[in-house]
Amino acid sequence: MTTRTNRLRPLGPATATWSCQGLDEAIALTAQGAIVFLQRGLAMVADLHLGKTQTLRQHGLAVPEGSDEETLEKLEALLSSWPLKKLVILGDLVHHQTALDGHGRLLEKLIGLRRRWPGPAFHLVLGNHDRMLKPGCETPLARDLVAALDLQRHSQLFVQEGLRGYHDIADAYEREGVQEGADEQPEPWQVSGHLHPAVRLRLGPGQWQRLACFTRSGRRWMLPAFGAFTGGFDIQPADYDEIVGLLDGQLLGLG
Asked: Who's near 134: CB < 8 A, 6+ residues apart?
């Protein structure tokens, strides 16, 4: 496993900013796991997997509760920290339909959050765990959720000038024939989720630290999972131009 420990750079306690060539604007990466496009007031997050612990417990697995609260606290912190016009969730908002059962507890929490933050438009790029939220496939509780959040849904990608947001970018290209940069010059910036990227750092002999991380390849950013109970996929650092790890509320540059 390739590591980047010799290039570890603390970037800041909460956010770090980059300029985006071709967009004429800055972006911020946050230690919560979001990317914020500052001039347009737009934040993107991915893979919240709300209700995952409840779903697993309903199947008899002894997993601790509380991850939804932690995830929603992170989301509220994001909404309170930036003057957002749009919040774009890049897939897997809810882990499974059963998470919306359970006497409406998760639904009530999301309704409460939306009431506290009515301003930004909420967008969802449908992910592989969002089947119950697809138009025409909703259960009554899922319809309630869409209505309560005033959720604007996108089947494969979110589009703004110079910017594209995906859940699984490879799947979108394959299934829908999405062409990278087909309608714009220069190539648009792209942001995706789905893989829950993580990087393993070697701290010493037999000592490793595994961090959720952002990755960048050219004009493409991949986001860490925003949910507190999601797991991760170990990436190969040599495959990326830039890696930014998340550790205890701080951002660490690894490339």
From this structure: 126, 153, 155
